[in-house]
Amino acid sequence: MLGSRIHEHKLAVRRGDGLAQVAAYTYETGHEFNVAAAKIIANARCKTSRELIEAWASDGNSVNRFIDLAPAYRALRSHHQTGATAV
Hints:
By secondary structure, the protein is an all-alpha fold. The N and C termini lie far apart (38 Å). Helix 1 crosses helix 2. It comes from Schistocephalus solidus. This is DDE_Tnp_ISL3 domain-containing protein.
């Protein structure tokens, strides 16, 4: 799955796809991504699952399109990322 996602990003850059965040970033800044250093943060079996994981893991600086979560999920994500525990 990672290989296909990286391939999608490379194609977007090559095509100059303005809707792809990675392509827009590359053209705006002149920077290139080190795809060899890409890491898997989670696995998904389908596109919907992948998009949910990307929404959970992304922020405004993400290479992937930022998908804002509903307020309840943002609070849960924030709670989870700080390692807070329930009392």
